[in-house]
Amino acid sequence: MEGLMLARTLAEVQAVLPARTLGWAFPDETTAALLLEGVGNLVFSYRPPQPALYLSNERLRGEPHNPFQRLLVARVRGDLTRAAQLKLDRVAQFRFAGESGFVDVAPARLLFELTGRNGNLLVLEDAPDDSEVSWEGRIVAAGREITNNRNRFRTVRSGGQYTPPPPYSKLDPRSMTAADAESLQHLPLGKWRERLDGLGLLLGAELVRRAGLPANQPPLSAWPRAWEALQGLVADPSIDVGTLNEGMREASRQEKAAQLRKTLREPLEKRLSLLRNQLADVDRAVEGLETAVQERGEADLLMAYQHGIQPGESSVLLPAFDGSGEVPISLEPQLSAVQNAEKRYARARRREEVYERLAEREPVLRAEFADVQADRAALEEAPLERLESLARTLETGRTDRSPYGAKYTSPGGFEVLVGRNNKENATLTHRVGRSTDHWFHVQGFPGSHVLVRSGGRDLQLPDILFAAQLAAYHSKARQSGNVAVDYTRIKQVWRPKGASAGQVHYAGQKTVYVDPEIPE
């Protein structure tokens, strides 16, 4: 049910307010009918994906089918004093005055969200100031409880606070002027509904039919015909049978396309996120190169003036080679000047190596990033047929994924699993791995647990280096070069008492040194 249709039904209800209510009837589990004296039944059909609100003279019967409907009978009573709509959105609110009697019934509000698959009927506490329409309040009960498991963006729970749909800016067709309509002349008539409040797929198709203009072309100088058709649609938002059938088919296609876009967008977003992180690594490597230049310059000064530096000093001031003044240099007191210089040379060399390795990949990363962005943009405009083709391609190219971590195959054919978080690390090490499997972890840095499912067989050097590179890459040592990686059998890895998930001690390890990268 679209916004203009809802507005027409509410106008009919508003014309008879305040109205005396004569009780509820429940034809089925998701339909509630309120009998209004002298009017008929106001029917709330809140079954997704096509909720509806309408007046009916049909005699409807039925006892409550569930606790929510029983609560409607007990808590939503008294005269109906107000019916309001949130702009031309598919959200309506009804206020009931309550009743006095042996047990008083407090005033309450009934809020109906006619939002397709997210449609819902809610009972809210009465607003503190009942003279104005408020779209917020505490939820007394909901026809459909929406938890984080079903919708991580918006929950609807009894006892919680109701939050109305987010605000938006569209033209109200009831109050827009001819100048507003003229401003839309360059927009295809089939897309006018994207700029007009209260119009969805069905009314958008009906607007095209009444205007007698092509849906995929801008009306241009024929915009007065579209404007006249729109005014007629505001006065009578009914739909031709042929348009209704076509609109229902188009709505089905649109919903299917939206689901496919969501499925196809997910891997693109993940790839973009990975590429952003890798490009950020490049930027950090550039900053590291600047630090390497400084460290190498300090090391050169230490080597040049080593004989004038006293042992045990924690800092020195040495004259710059270019005569620009003195350069302050911090020292490790337990090391000699030469040893301090050698440490700086080593750090500078590692930073330079990381930069060189990442600089080679930067053009490829930036080109791929641009391609994935273009694919994502094209996805939003792709027709249903193209989306179906892409979905089939994605399904065909999908490889098996381990539920316990990222999955690789070593040169020797062993399955290699990499934990992606603390929970997966603990699962790999303490549940999936067998006692004689091999376990890898970077030395001295937080990182992923890497499990090689060797089944007791010894690993050859290519397999060891393969797993070690994965461990180094998936660790905080990723920016370094020549990273130390320990490996041992699972039976020699244990979790200390009271330690959090992923924390372990190990023994009997051997160590290899590798560069952190994804092996071919």
Topology:
Layout: H1 3-14, E1 21-28, E2 31-36, E3 40-45, E4 52-56, H2 67-75, E5 80-85, E6 91-96, E7 108-113, E8 120-125, E9 137-142, E10 161-162, H3 178-182, H4 201-211, H5 223-235, H6 241-304, E11 315-319, E12 326-330, H7 337-381, H8 384-397, E13 406-409, E14 415-418, H9 422-432, E15 438-442, E16 450-452, H10 461-473, E17 483-489, E18 493-494, E19 505-506, E20 510-514
Antiparallel strand pairs: 1-2, 2-3, 3-4, 5-6, 6-7, 7-8, 8-9, 9-10, 11-12, 13-14, 14-16, 15-16, 15-17, 17-20, 18-19
Q: What do these coordinates show?
A:
With 520 residues, the protein is an alpha+beta fold. The chain contains ten helices and 20 strands. The chain has helices at residues 3-14, 67-75, 178-182, 201-211, 223-235, 241-304, 337-381, 384-397, 422-432, 461-473, and strands at residues 21-28, 31-36, 40-45, 52-56, 80-85, 91-96, 108-113, 120-125, 137-142, 161-162, 315-319, 326-330, 406-409, 415-418, 438-442, 450-452, 483-489, 493-494, 505-506, 510-514. The chain has a six-stranded antiparallel β-sheet with strand order 5-6-7-8-9-10. Strands 13-14-16-15-17-20 form a six-stranded antiparallel β-sheet, with helices on both faces. Strands 1-2-3-4 form a four-stranded antiparallel β-sheet, with helices on one face. Helix 4 crosses helix 5, helix 4 packs across helix 6 and helix 6 packs antiparallel against helix 7. The longest helix has 64 residues, at 241-304. The mean pLDDT is 88.
